[in-house]
């Protein structure tokens, strides 16, 4: 699970 | 990156540029809440700590730097520019920062994805962004008469939030494991706060009259 995918948002 | 996300970022960028342009060209910050602008500066400063630790893309880094520089510039203009600061209506802009900052920070300590400094700051910035517009909305209600640029600024911010929700829906269906409750719920709360403003904005636009909020 890539739990950090929202971190590419601003 | 999908079209909703890009359009969301662009309307977000446009909102900041509209505000900076207004302040820079007409040398006035009338109707703008310094409290909201300071909260946004804090939002970006706490969210973009990963500038020092992770590299995502050139686009990502540039946008983060633009938001950081522009938000701190706006605060600087309102507080220190010798002409602009005179137009700041301190007596109307009375919302207390810590009223929003403290609950958001406590909530971030309790509800987060990981208990690390970076992660808690990131979560705090999401909660704070959700409510940072409140001092601005209160100021709009108080002054009622809104100049076009201030109206457009808040409208663009609302558009940015709405587009981000479409972005999340899109990503949920196209990316595996894309589930982010903290981001979604705080983003939804933030967007709902604009609903009332949007209603009056569209009414005035439809009737082609100057935007005025009810007392």
From TrEMBL, chain B:
PROSITE patterns: ER_LUMEN_RECEPTOR_1, ER_LUMEN_RECEPTOR_2
Membrane topology, from the record: Multi-pass membrane protein
A Pfam family matched in the record: ER_lumen_recept
Compartmental location: Endoplasmic reticulum membrane
An MF annotation (GO) of this entry: ER retention sequence binding
GO biological process, any: protein transport
Signal sequence segment: none
Cellular component annotations (GO), alphabetically ordered: endoplasmic reticulum membrane
Sequence intervals crossing the membrane: 55-78, 98-115, 121-140, 152-170, 182-202
Keywords: Endoplasmic reticulum, ER-Golgi transport, Membrane, Protein transport, Receptor, Transmembrane, Transmembrane helix, Transport
PANTHER family for this protein: ER LUMEN PROTEIN RETAINING RECEPTOR (PTHR10585)
Family: Belongs to the ERD2 family.
Protein's name in the database: ER lumen protein-retaining receptor
Organism name: Olea europaea subsp. europaea
């Amino acid at each position: 699970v890539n739990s950090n995918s929202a971190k590419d948002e601003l | 990156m999908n079209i909703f996300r890009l359009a969301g970022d662009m309307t977000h960028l446009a909102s900041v540029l509209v505000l900076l342009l207004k302040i820079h060209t007409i040398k006035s910050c009338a109707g703008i809440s310094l409290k909201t602008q300071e909260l946004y500066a804090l939002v970006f400063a706490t969210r973009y700590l990963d500038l020092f630790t992770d590299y995502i893309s050139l686009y990502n880094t540039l946008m983060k730097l633009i938001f950081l520089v522009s938000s701190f510039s706006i605060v600087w203009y309102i507080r220190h520019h010798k002409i602009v600061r005179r137009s700041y209506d301190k007596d109307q802009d009375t919302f207390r920062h810590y009223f929003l900052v403290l609950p958001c920070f406590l909530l971030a300590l309790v509800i987060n994805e990981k208990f690390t400094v970076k992660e808690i700051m990131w979560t705090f910035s999401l909660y704070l962004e959700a409510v940072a517009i409140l001092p601005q909305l209160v100021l709009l209600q108080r002054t009622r008469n809104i100049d076009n640029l201030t109206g457009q600024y808040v409208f663009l911010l609302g558009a940015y939030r709405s587009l981000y929700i479409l972005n999340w829906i899109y990503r949920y269906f196209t990316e595996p494991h894309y589930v982010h409750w903290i981001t979604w719920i705080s983003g939804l709360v933030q967007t709902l706060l604009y609903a009332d403003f949007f209603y009056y904005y569209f009414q005035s636009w439809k009737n082609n009259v100057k935007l005025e909020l009810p007392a």
